[in-house]
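Researcher: Dear colleague, please comment on this protein.
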Amino acid sequence: MRPYRQSVYNEVSEESVGNFFQRYRGGLEESTDLRHLYTKHGGDMPMVFMWLMCSDPKLASHRCSQNPKAETLLPNRDPEP
């Protein structure tokens, strides 16, 4: 059983986790997850960051607030009256 598992799954290492973080952050998968979580939690960003993989509000919140393309990450919202 072990040889089969080793042939199917890659070994998890600090390097492989770091590579995943680099691919995920700022990528299409993170954008999709962010949109879904933003909608699911009604725009409650602390909850979004709690559930978003590889996120740290201190490190990631600026990517939405200072990114000129941030509006493309989040669902369209009607302006409040």
User: Anything to note?
Assistant: Residues 21-61 form one domain. Residues 39 and 60 are 18 Å apart (CA to CA).
